[in-house]
């Protein structure tokens, strides 16, 4: 009676992580909305992919933190401990246009540099064979199976990266690369017909509305 259930009804167990390659990656995902969980969902998918031995890399744009966030990020510690998962933080203190003491020109320059770095990784993936396993400790410049570009859609919202450039970026990716983009409280209409998955993470209530600031272990 378990023939049609995963693993024939057996309880899943943890197995050692060995380099592997996905059979059916290649979608572009866009996660946007005014609710909490866009980055969390993307990083969770990265963890799931890494657990199968796939090579995953995260580029975080626009995310340098605020005075309510400590310099130590829980997700970075976890990523560093997980084989096949790596990250680059390409932001700095504060948020663009929020009058938080940070310089908007710095945000603009770092967003542009972060997007250029994303282009470099995608270009490297075009030269790599994404149907084969990668060294779990190898550099992203030798190819990855999943690339997460966190807050890229927010950078488009702030007019720091053009929507046309993002569409061109998506269309330039190799067929087998799973590309995950996050950010933006506004609908990325420019990705309609371009992205394979678009998820709107909506806010119903949020602790911030009650004056509860970022909490260690949930927001960072």
TrEMBL record:
The keyword Transferase applies. The keyword Transferase applies. Residues 1-25 are annotated as: Disordered. GO terms for biological process: cobalamin biosynthetic process. Gene3D superfamilies: P-loop containing nucleotide triphosphate hydrolases (3.40.50.300). Keywords: Transferase. SUPFAM superfamilies: P-loop containing nucleoside triphosphate hydrolases. Signal peptide: none annotated. GO terms for molecular function: ATP binding; corrinoid adenosyltransferase activity. PANTHER family: CORRINOID ADENOSYLTRANSFERASE. This is Cob(I)alamin adenolsyltransferase. The lineage of its organism: Archaea, Methanobacteriati, Methanobacteriota, Stenosarchaea group, Halobacteria.
